[in-house]
Amino acid sequence: MDEFIDTITRTSIFSGLSREDLARVAGKLDEVRVAAGTTIIRQGEPGDSLYVVQTGAVEVLHRDPAGDVERMAGAVVWHLPAPAPLDAIGMRFLATLTVAVVLWSINVFDDFVVALGLLLSWIVAGIVRPEVALSGFTKASWFLFVGALGLGAGVTRSGLLYRAALAMVRRVTPSYPRYTAILVVAGLLATPALPSMISRMAVVAPVSWAIAESVGFAPRSPGAAGIVLAAFLGFSLLGFMFLTGSTGGLLGWNALPEAARAEFGWTAWAVAAAPAGLVTIGGLWLAIHLLFRLPPGVGVRVSRERFQAQLEILGAFTRREAFGLAVLLLALAGWMTTPLHGVGEAWVALGALLLFILGGVLDRSSLRANVDLGFLLFLGVVSGLSGVASAVKADRWLMTLVAPILETPAFHSVSLLLAVALVTVAVPFVLNKFAATILLTLALTPLGQQLGLHPGVVLLVILLNLDVWFFPYQLDVYQIAYFGTGEQGFSHAQGRRFMAAKLVVSLVAVAVSVPWWRALGLIR
After folding, report:
1. For the chain, how are helix, strand and coil distributed in percent, rounded to 5?
2. CA atoms lying within 13 Å on the CB side of residue 5
3. Which band of pLDDT confidence, cut at 50, 70 and 90, is reported for residue 463?
4. How far apart are the C-alpha atoms of 236 and 250, rounded to whole Å?
5. What per-residue confidence (pLDDT) applies to 67?
6. Which long-range contacts (CB under 8 A, 24 or more apart) does 44-53 make?
7. Displacement of CA 284 from its chain's centroid (Å)
8. Distance of CA 274 to the CA centre of its chain
9. Angle at Cα 43 formed by Cα 41 and Cα 45, nearest 5°?
């Protein structure tokens, strides 16, 4: 009996109970003796008892069906015969990538945990040398992520964003459609001046969430999702409209033949992309208001007096806010004038981050709170995918699959463009965005030229559809939009609904643009 009482009084789950409550618990318990090796309960059976171990020990085993799926998929690919130009090492790479994609798709672990496992598998299985596996962490693009997230954190910490959000809401006639439209138009105006979609989104994501929060929308509510995804549309998904609208566009343009580049400069690009841009803006803005309609009785709760009171409480423009604005303007000017001074966008972003640290806006604790280390680890591994794929010849194998399909006699210029769009949607499953842009441009523009398509048109179709995603890991700027709001703006489920609309709208934009491209002489 003493052992029974001792077990109850010393068990941690009962530690907060009074003596009277402990006595009541003791009256409900029965002592059960179990022989060694006996199964007490099986996974999936309804739980109807609480077991407290008095003496001895138990083993808890959890069977993970998802784990069985990913291990089976990986094992099948691992043992398949290697098609040329792949070898056994290439098949190992595809097997490990298959396992990672399955795990990312079913959300068993955090994205960065799966990414670290993928990184270790490349090294331990002898797929590539460590320096190749870690190449993503040495790229300027990874440091751009660091700087961009730091810049967004610094601007947010300075208090500038909150004041800007209040001022905007106070001056604009209260309306959910107006707020979404303003964010789209603002993004369109900022796009040609700022080539980095990541940098644009890092700045605007916290602003869009501050606006949603200021007008009374709850985290991940339809209104909040609509406002944040409108900012995502304006500040990232319109990058294809201008030659300087995205770093991916610049990479693809540099991969075009020299004669094509001469014919497809900044103005020609903007004119050619205009119809697709208008369809994208109108179609996705409409989709936002169809997918994320406000529930009946819910509206934009704006009180100008309340906002005025909040601004008065904030007081005069502070030195910290002025410093934040100055650093932001310096960063924007640095990105806009990169061709003049030659300093890359990543180093401009890191410089802005350093200024925020030296200025006392950011410190060690605020960096930990506002810059997601797991996210950076994930991006570093994924950024190295292209280098690893190239080392094991997976990129060449992928292109050998694509080229024969597009060379079939059934294709003409329009059907080829739609096929390019669908292929572009699929390629990011294997390759990151930058690598996919270059490889698709090099592989598909010669095929397009054979059918009378200007290489610039093929590149526009690639860029228009490369921002379609199925899993969050596929699109870096989507991750910035999601994490830049502290995961409060929208859920991945809401993001996938918006993605489905983006896929449909992008295909419609390609079809609508064909007559325009013919009129411009870009399709013969």
Report:
1. 70, 0, 30
2. 4
3. very high
4. 15
5. 47
6. 52/7, 52/8, 52/11
7. 18
8. 26
9. 70
CA–CA dist 40, 37 (Å, integer):
9
pTM score of the predicted model: 0.58
Which residues make Cβ contacts (< 8 Å) with residue 58, sequence separation at least 6?
Answer: 40, 51
User: Tens digit of pLDDT for each residue in 412-461?
Assistant: 667 778 888 888 888 776 665 766 777 777 777 777 777 788 989 999 99
Q: Is 407 helix (H, G, I), strand (E, B) or coil?
A: coil
* Contact call for residues 144 and 346 (beta carbons, < 8 A): yes
Q: Residue 153 in contact with residue 371, Cβ under 8 Å?
A: yes
Residue with tokens 């209104």: 223
Q: Which of 84-88, 100-104, 485-489, 493-497 has the highest mean pLDDT?
A: 493-497
Sequence-distant (≥ 6) Cβ neighbours of residue 297 within 8 angstroms: none
Please, which residues have CB within 8 angstroms of residue 59's CB and are 6 or more apart in sequence? none
- How far the first Cα of the chain sits from its last, in Å, is 94
**Phi and psi, residue 88, nearest 5°:** -60, -35
Residue the block writes with tokens 């950024």: 383
Query: What's the confidence (pLDDT) of residue 417?
Result: 82
Using the structure block, give the residue that is written with the tokens 């910290």: 320
Residue 461 CB coordination number (10 Å): 30
Contact 294, 227 (CB under 8 A): no
Q: How far, CA to CA in Å, does 234 sit from each of 152, 157, 182, 188, 397? A: 17, 24, 9, 6, 36
Partner residues linked to 523 by β-bridges = 453
32-67: b (≥16 Cβ within 10 Å) or e: eeeeeeeeeeeeeeeeeeeeeeeeeeeeeeeeeeee
Q: Which alpha helices (DSSP H) does 343-453 contain, by range?
A: 345-358, 364-370, 373-383, 385-391, 394-406, 413-426, 433-450
Q: What is the pLDDT of residues 164-176, one digit of tens each?
A: 666 666 677 778 8
Cβ atoms of 67 and 56 within 8 Å: the answer is no
